[in-house]
């Protein structure tokens, strides 16, 4: 960081620009593409594949490496992008990987993937090279085809396995110092109540690991079900998105999105926006926003993000307010004020609390 990022970060700070993480915006992608093309022109390296996947060209590797070092590749690729250079580099590799845009897998490719995995395990880099696909692509595809997965309602047994799996994966990521501190607290007060910071409940979780522990569901199903469970436990089981509360949440969401006035959905701080609905995970708010635009904005796929928000604000918002007013008047129901997000939760309230989300222990169907 001292060598590659500190100088850049100081410049961004002087300009009042915050360092970003998470998804890249369309503007950042455009700047990154420009940076790569400029570096290729500067060095004479033939293409982005040689620049970013130098190991694929052993005969030219030393020459390309020297050019990258001579012309400060790490600084150049991050120019104008307020992120750590490594994140910029990983994004560039994904954008310019010629193996990343090859469409659906054929039956033959899927069978080869199974064979290579039996030989090389989870060495996705090696397997990716063997089938000419990106590391991420082969890992996700294998997750889908490795075994039969259940569909439909989760059984109680599956749900309990999921909760246990998420707990284990989160604890695995906690630093040694934090674990020692937790252990000391338990020794001092065995009846004490351990707490966990909210971000650790949904950020940085390896869903591939969770999937492997659950066994009967793929990683996407696990992530979606965990969001459902976590939302219910964060809100103590209250219906925060039903009836008049749902209407008020949609109104709050539209007004907040209009107020922040961003050019791209990737610029939104979903963590902060969650308070428009209540004490919920960011992914819950993203899902609700997707459903809102998909149901209210005609041809939303062809509109820019500002156009979507303008339509919601100018057309949908007045209708929602009118509907809410009529519903409150008719039913005499009070609208609940969204709960402020808690920054810390008790461990037992998240991982050792039985609720309706655990379902019935029914026979699992594939």
Q: What is the helical fraction, as a range of percent?
A: 55-70%
Q: What is the chain-wise order of helices and strands? A: HHHHHHHHHHHEHHHHHHEH
Number of helices: 18
For the largest beta-sheet, the strand count, sense and barrel status come to:
2 strands, antiparallel
Rg measurement, Å: 24 Å
- Terminal residue distance: 48 Å
Shape: globular
Number of strands: 2
Organism: Galeopterus variegatus
Protein name: Transcription termination factor 1 isoform X3
Pfam families: Myb_DNA-bind_6 (PF13921)
Domain Myb-like: 146-230
Key descriptive features of the protein:
single chain; 366 residues; mainly alpha; two-stranded antiparallel sheet; 18 helices; 2% strand; disordered C terminus
Give a written overview of the molecule:
The radius of gyration is 24 Å and the shape is globular. The chain is 59% helix and 2% strand. Helix 8 (124-131) crosses helix 9, helix 12 (207-214) packs across helix 13 and helix 14 (243-260) runs antiparallel to helix 17 (305-331). It is mainly α. The longest helix has 27 residues, at 305-331. A two-stranded antiparallel ribbon has the order 1-2.
């Amino acid at each position: 960081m001292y060598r590659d990022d500190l100088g850049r970060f100081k410049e961004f700070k002087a300009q009042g620009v915050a360092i970003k993480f998470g998804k890249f915006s369309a503007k950042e992608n455009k700047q990154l593409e420009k940076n790569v093309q400029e570096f290729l022109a500067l060095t004479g390296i033939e293409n982005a594949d040689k620049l970013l996947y130098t190991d694929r060209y052993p005969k030219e590797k030393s020459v390309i490496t020297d050019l990258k070092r001579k012309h400060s590749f790490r600084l150049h690729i991050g120019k104008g992008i307020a992120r750590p250079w490594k994140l910029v580099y990983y994004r560039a590799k994904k954008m310019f990987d010629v193996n990343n845009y090859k469409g659906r897998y054929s039956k033959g490719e899927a069978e080869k993937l199974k064979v290579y995995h039996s030989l090389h395990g989870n060495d996705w880099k090696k397997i990716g090279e063997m089938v000419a696909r990106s590391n991420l692509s082969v890992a996700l595809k294998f997750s889908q085809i490795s075994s039969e997965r259940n569909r439909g309602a989760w059984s109680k047994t599956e749900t309990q396995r999921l909760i246990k799996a998420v707990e284990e994966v989160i604890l695995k990521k906690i630093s040694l110092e934090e674990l020692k501190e937790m252990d000391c607290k338990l020794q001092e007060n065995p009846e004490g109540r351990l707490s966990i910071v909210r971000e650790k409940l949904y950020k940085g979780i390896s869903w591939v690991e969770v999937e492997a522990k659950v066994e009967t569901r793929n990683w996407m199903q696990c992530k979606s079900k965990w969001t459902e469970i976590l939302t219910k436990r964060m809100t103590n089981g209250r219906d925060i998105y039903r009836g008049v509360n749902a209407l008020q949440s949609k109104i709050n969401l539209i007004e907040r999105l209009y107020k922040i006035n961003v050019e791209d959905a990737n610029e939104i701080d979903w963590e902060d926006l969650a308070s428009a609905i209540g004490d919920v995970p960011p992914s819950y708010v993203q899902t609700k926003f997707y459903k809102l635009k998909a149901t209210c904005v005609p041809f939303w796929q062809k509109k820019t993000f500002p156009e979507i928000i303008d339509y919601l604000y100018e057309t949908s918002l007045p209708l929602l307010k009118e509907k809410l007013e009529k519903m409150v008047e008719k039913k005499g129901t009070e609208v609940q004020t969204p709960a402020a997000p808690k920054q810390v939760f008790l461990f037992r309230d998240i991982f050792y609390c039985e609720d309706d989300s655990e379902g019935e222990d029914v026979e699992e169907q594939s």
